Amino acid sequence: MLSTKGLNLTMLAIPCAKSQQLHDPQATKLIANFDNPGKFQKDCDTVYDDFLNREVVVRHRYFTHFLEQKQDLYEQVLILGVGLDTKPDMLPCLKNKAVYGCDLAVTDIQNIYQATGVHTRTKLVACDLETGMNQQFLTRLQARGFSLTKPTLVLWEGGTFFLPPEAVVHDLSFLNQQLNLVGLLVDYMSSAVFNPPRHEKARRQLELVAKIGFPWKSFFTPAEIKQLEHKLGFTEINVTAHGEIEQRVFGNVKLDKDIVYLNAAFKPAAGTN
Ligand SMILES: C[S@@+](CC[C@H](N)C(=O)[O-])C[C@H]1O[C@@H](n2cnc3c(N)ncnc32)[C@H](O)[C@@H]1O
């Protein structure tokens, strides 16, 4: 049995939810040998109406839809805060794409893959997204084969809220400037629900994430998301409230409809019209 001691539990919570809710075989293998890998997931779901389970399923469905629909637009994918994301290994539409993933906890991630014997196609590169989105990071990515000129899609799932808003804007602006960015798939915690907390459940959720050492630091409105992406030159922008997809997937809405904003934005590759 592997211990979860010292691990970022939010990272193991995602494969737990994907194993239970989506019967994802890679997620199931990743958690199989851990002692109580679902602890954080259960705590979160208890505090807030099945929040983690529902949120993981909703965002997986939303992002998978756009990864499939736009697969001819991008040649490579960069996943920010990749954690143990199984999409690069499970989605047919990513099978022939080069996939790079960065994270603060790359050593933990590599240790988990090694200890569980699970293989990932994702090329992992260390990066602290709060302070380390810079030329040195791009150099490390390029050393693994990443191209600054190929049409690129950036996926940032379940991660913006761990950073202050200025860092989120900096990272997306920097990547937009340096890469041939054609697609952006991102989710944002809602300002209206959390800043300040709308009710006791929201307050307890903030308390829980602070207690495990990963406080939430940024919250956005749909207007702020659209404004940023217009500024970055995106021509097709979709912002969808969590509840819209929750209704479609689960047949009812248990969480606040606007608890999370799911966002997909696209523009033509550089040099095309
Ligand atoms: C909730 S998990 C989501 C993982 C993955 N994107 C998914 O949806 O399966 C958040 C991830 O963000 C990473 N993270 C948190 N703060 C970070 C930072 N400052 N820089 C880079 N990664 C960070 C964590 O290590 C963790 O892997």
UniProtKB/TrEMBL annotation:
User: Which molecular function GO terms apply here?
Assistant: methyltransferase activity
Q: What Pfam families does this protein map onto?
A: LCM
Q: Which GO terms describe its biological process?
A: methylation
Broadest EC class assigned to this enzyme: transferase
Keywords attached to this entry? Methyltransferase, Transferase
Q: Which InterPro entries match?
A: Ppm1/Ppm2/Tcmp, SAM-dependent_MTases_sf
User: Does the entry feature the keyword Repressor, yes or no?
Assistant: no
EC number of the protein: 2.1.1.-
In terms of superkingdom, the source organism counts as Bacteria
Q: What is this protein called?
A: Class I SAM-dependent methyltransferase
Q: Which organism is it from?
A: Fructilactobacillus myrtifloralis
Organism lineage string = Bacteria, Bacillati, Bacillota, Bacilli, Lactobacillales
